Amino acid sequence: MMLVTSGFAQEFTGEGIGSTKEQAKKEALTDLSQNISVEVKSVQTQLPELMGEDFRQDASSMIQLESCLPVLGAERFVFENVDYYYALARLSAQQVIPLYRTQL
User: In which element (H, E) is residue 28 found?
Assistant: First the structure.
């Protein structure tokens, strides 16, 4: 994997909310990972149906997002609110490029 920063984002962030600190951190890292790289899978179905003299068509859609990129060197900040925790995960290109070069 080659990482080039010229002309690209210098920082990525992710946010998460949870009932515990750990859940909020996990959500923030998931959001961060999806902001970097994500695979989208989509399935759409249509069901035409004739009911007497009426024609009806139902449609449904399912979208699945998946990210398998390891998050290396992320800074995490957690803030406690009255009834939930808010977390922010941040990757700075300057700090993590050496980690990705050696790990991937």
Answer: helix 21-36
